[in-house]
Design goal:
- This protein has helices spanning 2-23, 29-35, 40-68, 73-81, 85-115, 119-136, 138-177, 184-195, 198-201, 212-238, 250-258, 261-296, 305-324, 326-359.
- By secondary structure, it is mainly alpha-helical.
- It has one domain: Amino acid/polyamine transporter I (Up-down Bundle).
- The chain is globular and about 60 Å long.
- The chain starts with a helix and ends with a helix.
Length: 362
């Protein structure tokens, strides 16, 4: 019974957090980029707005997926947008290219800078582990991602404790030194905009939900579950404001300031694991979409095809990063995708989706 309750109410949020943190705020760079352009207090409000958007969209999406039995993004958007479902897929492929190229580069940097291992080994290791996880499918992926989320929560709790012990007074001072600013609402909506694409990617773990109460509760919980570690991280970032804004990898700067070398290495291992989580969930969503096509034809998707697709996508993304340039991919890709996902997902699911939910029988 306990396991069922965990799967129905908390698993979607834990898996959503696994995708968002590795591809989003794991290094702290995006938290600084979005929420420290104005004031620290305004940044906290922006984080609250992003969390609220995630919860509302997740609640509507989980219920829509339940009543339409749409547990892959192709089925979901076919019910939501009709033939317009292809718009999400095109945007999703662009997101994967950008996100996986960033993860590949970041994983290589983590092992090289912290453990002295060649960065190519780090990138290849990430690819192989993702390939193994997607080979075993949804059940294994759910267990691994949910379990690692608990490890992540514990790690962030220790991290925040060390930060407050070392420079808690500076955090309080910086938080109260400035007003709210003016850009916090836009920052919250924008940040939520492209990260919200992770919700259709984790629909495979909503199969356990059996009624409307569970769907809405799981959705509303997803926002806080995913954002609480980010909010805790943000408090640590505030302690180094404003110099932290200029740091390429804020987490390394903060960990160096803490002066706990063993925890520094442990945190990097946990961070590497979040990169694997994000890549696994994003690619598994594509595998589930392909598996559904096989199912419609009365066939089963060959199991070896799953890791083959994973490795192919990863190689393509990393090649795109080296050809186009990682900086250009991030600068142009994320900015464009934010508004695309708001247009093809957030607005439709909160309007047309809610209307269809009210009309369809439970």
């Amino acid at each position: 019974m306990k396991s069922n309750l965990l799967q129905r109410y908390f698993l979607p949020g834990l898996v959503f957090q696994s995708v968002v943190i590795g591809g989003g705020y794991g290094t702290g760079r995006e938290l600084v980029e979005f929420f420290l352009t104005d004031t620290p207090l305004g940044g906290l409000l922006g984080i609250g707005i992003a969390m609220l958007v995630w919860s509302l969209v997740a609640a509507a999406s989980f219920e829509f997926a339940r009543i339409t039995r749409s547990y892959d993004y192709r089925s979901f958007f076919s019910h939501l947008l009709g033939r317009g479902w292809i718009a999400f897929e095109l945007a999703y492929f662009l997101l994967i290219t950008v996100a996986l190229s960033v993860l590949g580069a970041a994983s290589g940097s983590v092992v090289q800078e912290n453990f002295g291992i060649d960065k190519d080994i780090g990138t290849i290791s990430m690819m192989l582990i993702i390939g193994i996880l997607v080979f075993y499918g949804s059940s294994v992926i759910e267990n691994v991602l949910a379990g690692w989320s608990f490890v992540l929560y514990g790690t962030y709790a220790i991290f925040v404790f060390l930060c407050f012990s070392g420079f808690g007074d500076q955090i309080t001072t910086n938080l109260s030194a400035a007003g709210l600013g003016s850009g916090w609402f836009k920052a919250g909506v924008t940040y939520a905009g492209y990260n919200v694409a992770a919700i259709p990617a984790i629909l495979f773990c909503t199969r356990h939900i059996v009624n409307r109460k569970e769907a809405l509760t799981a959705g509303l919980l997803a926002g806080p579950i995913a954002m609480v570690p980010g909010a805790l991280f943000f408090f640590a970032v505030i302690g180094h404001y404003p110099e932290i804004v200029q740091q390429t990898v804020p987490i390394n700067y903060i960990l160096t300031g803490i002066g706990a070398p063993y925890f520094h290495y442990f945190f990097q291992i946990v961070l590497f694991g979040t990169f694997i989580e994000t890549g696994t969930a994003m690619i598994h969503a594509i595998n589930e979409r392909i598996a559904e096509v096989y199912k419609e034809k009365g066939k089963h998707m060959p199991k070896p095809l799953r890791p083959a697709i994973a490795i192919g996508i990863l190689v393509t993304a990393i090649f795109a990063a080296s050809t186009i340039g990682l900086v250009d991919l991030i600068a142009k890709g994320y900015g464009l995708l934010t508004y695309v996902f708001i247009a093809v997902f957030v607005v439709p699911v909160l309007t047309l989706g809610m209307w269809k939910i009210c009309r369809l029988k439970r």
